[in-house]
Amino acid sequence: MSFNFRTPPSPAHLILPLILMGIGLLSASEHLNHQVQPGESLFALALRYECSVEELKTLNSLNRDVLYSGEELKIPLKYPDSHKVQSGETLSGIALKYGIPQEKLISLNRLNGTNLNSLKELELIRPPLEGEVWTVRKGDSLSWLSLKFNISLERLMQINLLDSSGLKEGQLLELTPPRPQVITLEKGDSLWKISTLYNVELSELMRWNQLESDRVFEGMQLQMYSVVLNLEEEDKKERSEEKKGFPADPEILMAQVELTPSLYYSTPTERKTQPDRNYSETDLDDPMNNYLQASRLLEDFEQASRALPPLSRKLRDFTVIIDPGHGGLDPGAIVASSDGNGNTVYVVEDEYCYDISLRVYRDLIRHGADVVLTVISPNQVIRTTEDASLTFVNEKNEVYNDSKVNRFVDAWPVGNAWGLDQRKEVARLALRESPGNKSVFISIHADNNTGDGKGTRVLFHPDEKDTSSEDLARQIQGFMGADSLSRAQELRVLEANPADAAVLVEVRNLAFKSNAWAIRNEELRQDDADRIVKGIVSYFK
User: pTM higher than 0.85, yes or no?
Assistant: First the structure.
């Protein structure tokens, strides 16, 4: 199997190749080739292509961590392009195996019915890889490519600037957008700069945006295609098709898949579970070193998040401060629970709250928001949970997301008044950079209080003059499920908070065994994140 790839115009558009849900893995021999660019690392490539560093090293027989500019690496692929038909197989069985409706396989392979006869290979529906370019073959049509890659005809025509559906043999078609549909100009941007960055003719940009001159201004929105698609209407159409039993557009499927789960800049703990309440692994030598490392990791994670297909534009021009509870010297609650087999396991609050915070962070970005974390980790991004009987280990290495405070050797996050005020200081600095933006502050915790019920608690600081925080709390609480509630409570991190509205979300109550189990479950942590994001979107709406 081989693929052609174009070079994206900027690092912000390096989208992760993601797994199409329901499709099996390729054999190790199937791969794509990547030419190493200056400054690229094994970690960055693993994050971009959603594989592990070890997979890259094994596939390329590497015994070193350094990459050389210009060398070519093999990148493992994780979904098949076609299926080799074996004796005795049926079309319905193959359709079930790959999660593709049988009717679509019939159309894609131009079959007269369900009989495979002497067919040796069956084309499968799959998402295109970012940057993939298709060379049109004899007999290809735009509608066939639309079916093959589950992309709408309109979108294919848009990204290739086509004004008709006719194709020519040998023609090159881009399968993923080389640029966003709309961009907002920043200070210092010019039309010439944008045309150069995205490889678009200046005259075309002017024509698409009905400009009489090349003068533009900060905050101006530019259409980047000749055809403007209503993405929200497309999303409605895709959801409708999904209800009928058809798979959604690959972009929607990809949106549900996690970013690379467990990649580290530094060596992760060798322990697979928290052994007791008192155990911790510390990296508390130099806050500035941890801050620089955490900033690089978060930058990679942010780029990967921005490169995912957008969920909407509903939060454009809004700022959200995400405050992962505890961290650094303060692990929060460490709760004894059961693994279901009679063994005691320990759940560390700050480790799980940071994971949920990153999930919220990623999906808010995909709604168009500007998002800032108050506390960041030098070695963690979103993590998978292979076995809920294993728990995240207490790692004391997080830092405040503020370069100034990390110049001091004792600047680690703590749970006292000074430590809580630092979180508000991070928010204040972030909001100073985006004056006039509507903003919210969301602190994410997991309670450990037997008297407070199993449901989510969304807390706001009492303020008789301004009900914004209360409104935000009620919006989020409305999405958090049974037994959830919102209430006023005097909390220092919320008092005199610089954001327009500020709440603290006790996502789970770890005093209850069912919740201590649920937070260890990756799918349920994502569900918690989804609910919080929906509440924020609803509040701004």
Answer: no
